[in-house]
Amino acid sequence: MRLSKDFLSDYIDLSNISYSDLADKMVFAGNEYESIGKLCNATGLVVGYVETCENHPESDHLHICNVNLGSETVQILCGAPNVKAGEKVIVATVGAELPGGTIKKAKLAGMESHGMICSLAELGLESKYLKEEDSAGIHILDDDAPVGEDALHYLGLDDEIIDFELTADRADLLSVIGMAYEVGAIYDKKVTLPEIHLHETKENINDIMKLEVKTENCSIYLGKIVRNVTIKESPKFIKNRLMASGIRPINNVVDISNYVMLEYGQPLHFFDKDRLGDEVIVRMSSNEETLTTLDGKERTLKDTDIVIANANVPVALAGVMGGLETEIEKDTKNIFIEAAIFEPTHIRYTSKAILRSEASSRYEKGVDPYRTLLALNRACELLELYAGGEVSSGVLTHDTTNKEDKKIEVPLEKVQSVLGMPITKEDVCEILPRLGFSYEIKYNTFEVSVPTRRLDVNIKEDVIAEIGKIYGYNKVVGTLPIDKIRKGTYSKKAKLERVIRKQLTALGLNQVITYSLVSEEDIEKFVSSEKDSVILNSPMSEDRKIMRKSLIPSLLHVYEYNIARNRKDISIFETGSIYYKEKETYKEDFTLSGLMSGVYEENTWQGNKMNVDFYLVKGIIENLLGFLGLTNRYQFDTENLVKELHPGMSARILIDREVVGFIGRVHPSVCKQEVYVFELNLQKVLDLKVKPIKFKEIPKFPSVKKDVAFIVKKEITSKEIEEVIKKAGSRILTNIDVFDVYEGENVKEDEKSIAYALTFSDPNKTLNDEEVTVIFEKIIDEVTSKLPAELRNK
Amino acid sequence: MKEKVENLKKEITEKVKEVISLKELNDLKVEYLGKKGPINELSSMMRDLSVDEKKEFGRVLNEVKTEVGNLFDTARKELEEKELNEKLEREKIDITLPSSKVHVGSTHPITKVIEEIEDLFVSMGYDVVEGPEIEEDLYNFEKLNLPKGHPARDAQDSFYITEEMLLRTQTSPVQARTMDANLEKTPIRVICPGKVYRRDDDDATHSHQFTQIEGLVVGENISLSHLKGTLEEVAKKLFGEDREVRFRPSFFPFTEPSLEVDVSCFKCGGSGCSICKGTGWIEILGSGMVHPNVLRGCGYDPEKYTGFAFGMGPERIAMLKYGIHDIRNFYIDDLRFLEDFNRVEGSEE
Is the ipTM of this complex over 0.90? Predict the structure, then answer.
């Protein structure tokens, strides 16, 4: 809402108030503004009188003018075709600031020029307000223009404007009168409303026209007829105030309808009475009905649209846009004025589909029924004054609205306890009248009467908020709430997330956060079991369309982004949700994913480095699971692998034999570089019970180490061998470690050698050689007999 | 004989002095104290002496033996020390060469801010609670006093999945869920961090996905003063001890009164600078007293209970705190950006 100071000062005395102070005080009443400025921001413009005007001898278009500026007469060169001696013009003096730059003394075709004669277009008015002639030549002022005076002031273009960004509840501030009340409350000043005087003719509208309101979605509908209007340009003050308010002047009749809407906040619609006919029907549209709106478009209406119809067809989309057929045209003589209130939600749906206009945005937020008749009469008065109209008597009326003040009981104690400020009864008594709220007091409870214009004030808390606003929220002194002392808690999820984050960052992985919405192309990638997707019903783009079912595609995008910036070594992880639909419920599984590639640790000049490979990533996962207390409960297998992973370098992760994730190298068809990823369903980890830490006695007796190597077929996994060793090793075998895996010379092509370091110990005694040897030989026997394996000779 | 011994002692002393390595010293020791060495030779000559002479000569010879032994020991210690020092000298490295890179990953700045705020509130007795991101219209809007068709829904253009399900546009639905779930309708103190989504085109200041932290306190006699006191703690924790907060009235459908909260500028302290756009104050969050319709809708009697709620954006806080100008940085995950946050917080002083 752009608020003109000139307009506002019709209703409230602003003589001692600077507009910037007003803007700042409004902020502390909850009304923020986007900008403050003038209708025209140019400076140094004066009214000049062109005394002489001759053609420049060396130019085909320049004129040499002597211009009287009141205090002096200066020579100005002007190229406009319409400059003439004896005209009054707008002169930008030397030093003037125009949107196009600063005016300087200049030499044009050898002659000095001390300023510039301006067109309207050069003053900085928004282009939508300019007519073609405003930039075609200089602007000629009326003969009464005072030479030497401020030209902008004379033109009324020096008005100050605050562009407010209003909150959605303050429908009342979408009118200059509403603003006047707000400013009045802040500065404790009285608001003066316009007095309306009409000279009505004998003709009564109720004898001519018939109104039928067939829907509950129109609470009030008032109409009046104004005859014999003359369509012409509006008076200067109306045009300037419309421009200051952001509305383009059209002609006196259209401008008056906008002017009254700005003034009262009540949208009006003017119909060409002769084309409308004698019957007005307000009803819901029926499906498939059509209406050509005044922008020339034929619209197919829905049964949620409210329409104004005459005896035959719809003539306007109520509250949103008029129809082309009954629009005011240059030859319109007789006008039917509609002042009505329509149901906000219907207007909202209709305007969303068609156009959000000044009128519809007011209807959507709500209009004060008390002002409907006032606005109607005000429009008639202005048409009388500025369009030569003759107002018929009577008002065509349908009215179901309640225009009584709202009565709200507000206990003083509640005011104090909610605001937490030492507000006294006297303070409240002083504040309520400033807001325009009258009251009575009964036993420390205020019975407050709230005028209908305050559609946003309906319950005591609303009144309390208004009191707080005028009293000043800056007076609140902060204290902490007093309550029984209790300890705060983190949610299970927040705790797990922290543990994982701390462990993985300690292991060198960077935490990332990516978007939950992904493209159709990514949605099925790295998804380990089939799940129904959660799809937006109207996405903004193809890239952000579906809620992700895996975090890995997003991590791959982060990888690609960083690789493209020459970052080769990338270790990242993310904790976040994956989303899917199961039967009719929406699921969000808390998930951990990671991606690792390149060098894990290195010292370049020493030539030491550790590359990321499957076993490193496996180590990261084992470290994390161990940290989570899950040692001995997890395992890896190679069933049902995710298809985006390298089939020979990936595994599923199981905890307590339940699949909880996967790990592996990204399939070369998905990513050419050597990239490893993992995913863990933390939703499952969240619910696992973990045993408390318990100290185990450190063995007192020395252990015995023995090495053994087997030659086996390549397909035999280390796990298979280990299982046999473990079984044969009995309880004195306390650790198995692989210390060498060899393929190549001296080993057959389809075979490999695996060497194990076995540790034997007994918590109760020192083992003797014999005991160990018996077990060791049993291990060799079992492995070589149960598996296609041979003992490797030294 | 005696003279011989004395001369030998002299000779050994001279030679030991000239020795420069442990090997030479050992060789020398073998040469003089070995089986075929002159000392042994002298001992063997004792056989030919008389008892008295034997006694006397034995004493002298033992003395010399001890002295020479000490001589060798001292020399060995000196040489060992010398050789150790030489070894240390040889082993000297250039400590200015680059280190081996030991990587510790960084925590995302949004996580840092969220955890800082969580920790503060947990220390004040709040519980951290969460709610679904795929939310019902009922909780995201209706229970928050935003019925269908309410104009304030415009400010939060939403991603709908069906008519009744959407991606939550705010963390406020967790407020309603927490109150609903509290069947005894006892006092509440919670904060709810999480992701939210709005139909905004991504640019430097808008993101279709961002995070929020919602706070809710419900109890008897909760007032604006308590809200301000609580938010003062937040401002001090996040932006430094000297921070002040101020209220500006505003409008949110789920609070009345509704207040925007500004914190005094941490950069200029209030005198005006580019960060606070010359005002001395920075807007950091929205808050207010829980609207009676919201309390009532969740089973709390607004005549008995009041409450305050607030919502803040970790992105905005991180942007202010760390001087980040483009919100997209948080979701692009450029490692150079992320690694900047790999350290403890510091203070200006």
Answer: no
